[in-house]
Amino acid sequence: METEIVSEFLPFGRIYKDGRVERLTGTEIIPPSLDARNDVVSKDVVYSPDHNLSVRLFLPHKSTDNKLPLLIYIHGGAWIIESPFSPIYHNYVTEVVKSANCLAVSIQYRRAPEHPIPAAYEDSWSAIQWIFSHADGSGPEEWINEHADFNRVFIGGDSAGANMSHHMAMRASKEKLDPKIKGVAIVHPAFWGTDPVDEHDVQDAETRSGIAEVWEKIASPNSVNGTDDPLFNVVGSDSDFSGLGCEKVLVAVAGKDVFVRQGLGYAAKLEKSGWRGDVEVVVEEEEGHVFHLQNPDSESASRFFKKFVGFITGSSTDVM
Q1: Which residues are catalytic?
Q2: CATH says 23-313 is which class?
Q3: pLDDT for 132-177, tens place per residue?
Q4: How far apart are CA 26 and CA 83, in angstroms?
Q5: Which residues form the Alpha/beta hydrolase fold-3 domain (predicted)?
Q6: Shortest CA distance to 107 belongs to which of 159, 150, 61, 45?
Q7: Whole-angstrom Cα distance, residue 116 to residue 141?
Q8: Domain locations in the chain?
Q9: Fewest CB within 10 angstroms: 4, 181, 192, 223, which?
């Protein structure tokens, strides 16, 4: 086996001379289970035979409701690591499904560097189209046909998944997805650009170049404008948010996250855009990037979890 390293993109992985990609984290997998775990059952269903891509479905085991809110989840991981089958995402979505009493569909997408952007975006949209093929109750997957309430559809994601959640909502409007999406949760979004969005944004040249390198050399080497690609530079670009295809948005940021000013800038841009929905911003000043996944038992993670569940159920922040 070829052992010469051509490129190293720590902490994510390495590329070898023979083209092999070694991921250093986010590779562990939990299998689905039709035996209830934490009162939730799960299974994997192929939505793209051409690319051998699946979604993982999560359903409350003892729900008495015939129709449930539908959460479409797009995982993070810098477009490079993790999957719906990773313990960190399987366990988190399980908890959300249990507490929100919802049906969740967690999307697998092709990852860089083997499949550079825009593959992840195209796959996510393909999965959403597949999910919405069930809106009239005649799709290929019985759980979605029987339990999904398409008047209560939410898209959510963290980091790279939050970035893609925004773009999926924009595309839903452009392509007139029907029924319309009710809400989108943008959690610690991976938005970036060549220049800081304000004087409080990251000024350190090494940090900025490090993030740019991941995008330009690994995730999206074909971007003509580098980090100013509108897919990445969502806040600083001249993109129009007024047509965002949902009724409400939850924007969550963490004070010690390098993306915090981008997230706050996103919420401000959305509010000024003429979009007619509701924007709610949640800030945890003393936490870092995706703290709620890294340390789910912390007090701040519990606080955000209640907010996220409440966003889906339409209840107050005191939901348990």
Answers
A1: 159, 257, 289
A2: alpha beta
A3: 999 999 999 999 999 999 999 999 999 999 999 999 999 999 999 9
A4: 8
A5: 71-292
A6: 45
A7: 29
A8: 23-313
A9: 4
Q: Who's near 318: CB < 8 A, 6+ residues apart?
A: 306, 310
List, for residues 268-311, the tens digit of each pLDDT value: 999 999 999 999 999 999 999 999 999 999 999 999 999 999 99
* CA angle centred on 102, ends 101 and 105, rounded to 5°: 145
Q: How confident is the model at residue 15 (pLDDT cuts 50, 70, 90)?
A: confident
299-313 vs 87-100: helix crossing angle, rounded to 10: 50
301-309 long-range Cβ contacts below 8 angstroms, 24+ apart: 304/252, 305/95, 305/96, 305/99, 307/250, 307/252, 307/282, 308/96, 308/156, 308/185, 308/187, 308/250, 308/252, 309/96, 309/99, 309/100
139: burial class by Cβ within 10 Å (0-12, 13-18, 19+)? Answer: middle
Distances from the Cα of 180 to the Cα of 124, 149, 171, 177, 276, angstroms: 17, 12, 11, 6, 14
Characterise 157 by phi-psi region: left (phi > 0), alpha (psi -120 to 50), beta (else). beta
